[in-house]
Amino acid sequence: MSESNGQHEKKRLESPPKSVKIKIQRRDNEKAQPRWETFEIPYRRNLNVISALMEIRKNPVTIDGKKTTPPVWDMSCLEQVCGICTMVIDGGVRQSCSALIDDLLLASGGDTVTLEPMSKFPNVRDLKVDRSRMFDHLKQVHAWIELDGTYDLGPGPHISNEIAQERYKYSRCMTCGCCLEACPQYSGDQYIGPQAIAQARLFNMHPTGKITIDERLEGLTGDDGITNCGNAQNCVQVCPMSIPLTRAIYETNRDMTVHALFGWLRK
Amino acid sequence: MTPNGLKIAIVGGGLAGLAAAMKIAEAGHEVDLISVVPVKRSHSVCAQGGINGAVNTKGEGDSPAKHLDDTVYGGDFLANQTPVKRMCDMAPQIIYLFDRMGVPFSRTKEGLMDFRRFGGTLHHRTAFAGASTGQQLLYALDEQVRKYEVAGKVNKYEGWEMLSLILDDHQVCRGLVAMNLQTLELKAFAADAVIMATGGPGLIFGKSTNSMTCTGSATSACYQQGARYGNGEFIQVHPTSIPGEDKLRLMSESARGEGGRVWVPRTKGDERKPKDIPESERWYFLEEKYPAFGNLVTRDIATREIFQVCLEGMGVGGENQVYLDLTHIPAETLTRKLGAILEIYEMFVGDDPRYVPMRIFPGVHYSMGGLWVDFEQRTSVPGLFAAGECDYSIHGANRLGANSLVSCVYGGFTAAPSAIEYAKNVERGKTETNGIHEAELKRQQEINEAIIKNEGTENQYKLHEELGKWMTDNVTVVRYNDRLKATDDKLLELIDRFKHISINDSNLWATQAVPHARQLWNMLQLARVITLGALNRNESRGAHYKPEFPERDDEHWMKSTIAEYSEEAPVFSYESIDTSLVEPRKRDYSSKKSAAAKVPRPGSELKSEGREEMLAREGEQIRKGESIKE
After folding, report:
1. Rounded CA gap, B319 and A6, in Å?
2. How far apart are CA B605 and CA B599, in angstroms?
3. Which candidate, A118, A219, A257, A155, places its Cα nearest to that of B108?
4. What residues in A contact B97, CB-CB < 8 Å?
5. How much is the ipTM here?
6. Bridge-partner residues for B561, per DSSP?
7. Nearest alpha carbon to residue A57 among B212, B241, B445
8. SS3 call for A107
9. Using one digit for the tens of pLDDT, what is the confidence trace for B375-402?
10. Structure confidence by residue, pLDDT tens digits, B407-416
11. Of B101, B247, B340, the CB nearest to A78
């Protein structure tokens, strides 16, 4: 939030353009060659990338007057809490619902906003990608608490508010994939990446979760495990939820060392 | 299907669907879980404020009986009381279970869960995890269900949309047909029972606080195949949303729960910045009219008051907006308690609500109505169950804040054993081989082909916009019979024009045009249920308000509305309400005397000096922005 600079009211475009150009990388399906199409829509103060795309979808005609297919993209909550609408906007990966056209033009100084799909995941069509492997990664690290059953056993363990607040930061991860898109080490199946490590950390910090820490760390010891992190720290820069991803990696590494040590002692 | 095991299909992977999936998998049965989006991205993530349960950890003498009373009173006595009581009794267990699952609830100094106050109650009954409680609860269930997925008990079909039920000759549900949203492939899912958990129909109103997946399409399909739809006309308009180009973003009730004050300048056209307007020249209209509850009156009342103030031209800058002001509370406190929702405001509007009052206006938020269910979550179609926002039980004519999350989980936890019990005993006959699955698949395939082939001049997205505008203008906060009638005529026109749409997409791979067309048709059908239900109901109750009939009329209308599909128009009938636990009384949040006449348990007598004193004192404290101390 903008406490530090004393600016409590938003900076806006002073002389906004009459129209704004939206340049979109199109692709008919995963195997098709990408191509570019540019559209022009009337400028309005509160436009975000989603409402621009909705406007284009209603009548998909390019700036050259060519009728084309409606662009395909994913969207759901539009409040930056479901993670589905992530794409690469003016070169940066982020959610398109919270990308305001006004801010983008202010930042670029131009009259065009460029949209591309995330590049680290299989493309489906246009701006839509398949991120299902991120959910598989959550299986790999056992990102859950083991329960004896869902029947009534009273409340959970006492937890200090400090620990609860620390865990809350990690628990806001919406599996959007920004961290993986920005990570130079992540491509395909070679590295599990920051999101899964942070989710392992989330449960390792919980008094009940701690009991099964070995299972979670086990999921991070393989060829695609935590040691692939090259410490570029891009992940923490792009995370829309400001999750302390590098701290999760550091602390999990520390847990692994202890784990390896005691694992060896137990043998 | 495993030899002795059962297979149950669940449509929808939000809180209700995942709650049911977890229970069924835990009982050892198999689940097919069908969801339009990866379940972790379901609309439940948008719930911000918290989850209600009378745990009474603050020494306030709270109890499930009081939770029941607040809920049925807040719902203006339209809900059947037995399921509400069951939910309120189960609520503390539900919250404790989430605590065990590792939800990072805010804690007290002792390390216990902390609770906050919400609208329509005087107790600290709402557990919360920051200001993203829905997200946190959904993730907890998502994690548990993922564990069962690994164990082979849950098969997820994410990116699939349900199109219709598979019914046998006796109208018994034997499964469903769904469409793969990438390939447009249709598949018949055979099941011993089907649970609907598909959420609300906010998209019928165009812009709402709902996610873009909340079309009500699947519930509408069930209705069109014979399932009864209850209380459709009861649509909650949330008093505080942030108007946007693409949607209305919710500003959680917790902003008022933590002391937020609603006001406008006393003088029309006052153009000063809010901080330059002195206290005496501000009109805190909710506090003035409802001294006991102040800014925390129920949602329907807050919405109508804000709407009315703007209608009279008293809105900020003469526009449809009023201030929701938190600036009297220390910035640090706000960040800690409301960080996530304040970030949403700052992200989409730009101003920092810790220093600049927010500008808000009511927005369509929740459907109290939905598929009719009995007290065991069974719909009127044998083999079909419903849970969560898509069922009509629990909330009556108006939902209390933080009751939605608990009702979703309660619904899922009740539907699951109910569906298992049904599936164990259902006569199967030859349903696997008698061709009903193929027949329904073929019927749906033909509908898709007709849509794809159509080359009319109508644009489906523009039809959707028209639908949204008409519904928002005429079937939300204030309702007039002539306008409701005109809206139904408009809906008939839109249904006719729908037949002339062109999908406008030559590439069928992952096209969003065909699914949207299917959704739009279903939305139009459900819109008629909402509109005509409102037209018929000549009284005012909860969220349903008619200036021509401003009073609640228990003699004629303390009844559930039941709509059944016919091609011509929905057929309406009415069903009496179960009021076995709390005697209906007039709802009045302006006075302190809202005591219950009858409560179901000894020791929970509300009509005491203590409660009224507490009401007055807390109302005063809330107005001053203080936290409530016992």
Report:
1. 28
2. 7
3. A155
4. 150, 152-153
5. 0.96
6. B574
7. B212
8. helix
9. 999 999 999 999 999 999 999 999 998 9
10. 999 999 999 9
11. B247
